[in-house]
Design goal:
By secondary structure, the protein is α/β, with parallel strands linked by helices. The protein is about 35% helix and about 15% strand. Strands 6-12-11-10-9-7-8 form a seven-stranded mixed β-sheet, sandwiched between helices. It is globular and about 70 Å long. The relative contact order is 0.17. It binds pyridoxal-5'-phosphate (PLP). The site of pyridoxal-5'-phosphate has 13 residues, from α4 and α5.
């Protein structure tokens, strides 16, 4: 099953054939689906909260049992001792995002991690004090950026530079991003982009943007909330200084679970980099000597503050093991086919009924399409929900549909399009 070779057909038989030929189809059985009249829902909201892996329960129960059996000794004994528990996720996380193990850590939550990274990588000085972000970046990122520039004595009006699409366009052009970096490079301390953009579904050319920004002497960070477990990332090679993401969307780690952080190897041993410090980031050998002086663990682990919540990590482990078996290249191959199929079916709907604002180029998007409907989008969302199809709504008129390849089938996509077609014709 390869993208270029597939000629899509708008028929149930075709969707079923695609599912039968899908080498990843069995992963669907490893997840628990909400039910609608006894049937699994069509779940297109994995970009908001991923489904629960079946193994999450036994893994969390195992950690609870260790607590019951060992009490505090569970830090060193039991099935998976808690002291190094977060390390169980390191190699898998590194493979997931294309990083070296030294460069990643699972800790805290996204907004917290973004602040920690801004402390280290937003170092305004003289003329170079601006942060370049997308206009309409995810609100938490806007708040984090505004509060950080104020923290350094600047104002957002002066120190936040926004990238907006051209008039009449919905998404950013790479050439315009590069042009802004080129023209304002000397004033920019940090380029911070949400990749994939949460609203438009646009994915950016990380390597090209990072190179251009570095040429101008800017630091570069990415918010990968909508990319981790969605895009095939190569963080080490693409070279941003840092990236942060959450694990409750495509990564299926459970509501409010821990996020991930990437800090490029070039910063791994830099003890002069300013950072907020906590005991869990301190050298592992001497941590329990309880000395007053902080000695950071080399790499991303050196940004840890606290000992981590084990039950959350246990649930996340269940999903990360699935990603490791499925592998991102294979998932991405399926994802391109699945999202491509969704786009093909949307193209068959009555003209003017729906318009995707997400780029058509598969390289410029992940699994999700942001759809604008000309006819009663809120009512359509209600109709979808009433028929067991879960999508989400972003005011005033965008329905986001994300066929996550681990557990969404081609038949799901075909049925989703069927509901849209009936709404269009009613
Ligand atoms: C792009 C983006 N950034 C940041 C956040 C905030 O994440 P958290 O609540 O885990 O800090 C979200 C949450 O959905 C998001 O989508």
């Amino acid at each position: 099953m390869s993208g270029a070779a597939v000629r899509y057909e708008a028929s149930e038989a075709f969707a079923r054939r695609m599912d039968a030929e899908d080498p990843l189809r069995h992963f669907r059985d490893e997840f628990l689906f909400p039910r609608h009249h006894g049937e699994p829902v069509i779940y297109f909201v994995g970009n908001s909260l991923g489904l629960q892996p079946r193994k999450a329960t036994p893994y969390v129960l195992e950690a609870l049992k260790d607590w019951e059996m060992h009490g505090v000794e569970g830090h060193f004994r039991g099935s998976h001792p808690w002291m190094p528990y977060h390390e169980l996720l390191t190699e898998q996380t590194a493979r997931l995002v294309g990083a070296h193990p030294l460069e990643v850590v699972v800790m805290n939550t996204l907004s917290v991690n973004l602040h920690l990274m801004l402390v280290s990588f937003y170092r305004p000085s003289g003329e170079r004090r601006k942060i370049l972000i997308e206009a309409g970046a995810f609100p938490s990122d806007q708040y984090a950026v505004a509060s950080q520039v104020r923290f350094h004595g600047h104002t957002p009006e002066d120190a936040v530079l926004q990238l907006a699409p051209r008039p009449g366009e919905e998404t950013l052009r790479t050439e315009d991003i590069l042009d802004t970096i080129e023209r304002h490079g000397k004033e920019i301390a940090l380029v911070l982009l949400g990749n994939v953009n949460y609203l438009t579904g646009q994915a950016f050319d990380m390597a090209t943007i990072t190179r251009a920004a570095h040429r101008q002497g800017c630091k570069v960070g990415f918010d990968l909330a909508h990319a981790a477990g969605n895009l095939h990332l190569s963080l080490h090679d693409d070279g941003p200084d840092f990236a942060v993401w959450c694990s409750y969307k495509y990564l299926n780690g459970g509501p409010g679970t821990l996020g991930g952080v990437f800090v490029h190897e070039r910063h791994a041993h830099d003890k002069t980099l300013p950072r907020f410090q906590g005991w869990w980031g301190h050298d592992k050998q001497s941590r329990f000597q309880m000395g007053p002086d902080f000695d950071p663990i080399p790499g991303a682990e050196g940004w840890q503050l606290s000992n981590p919540p084990i039950f959350q990590m246990a649930a996340l482990r269940a999903s990360m093991e699935i990603f490791d078996r499925a592998t991102m290249p294979a998932l991405r191959r399926k994802s391109e086919l699945l999202t491509g199929y969704l786009e093909f079916l949307l193209d068959q709907l009555p003209p003017g009924f729906v318009r995707s604002i997400t780029p058509r180029d598969p390289k410029q998007r992940g699994a999700h399409l942001s759809l604008r409907f000309s006819k009663e989008p809120r009512k359509l969302l209600e109709t979808l929900t009433a028929q067991g199809v879960l999508c989400d709504f972003r005011s005033p008129d965008i329905i986001r549909a994300a066929p996550a390849p681990l557990y969404v089938s081609f038949l799901d996509v075909y049925r989703f399009a069927g509901v849209l077609e009936r709404h269009a014709r009613d």
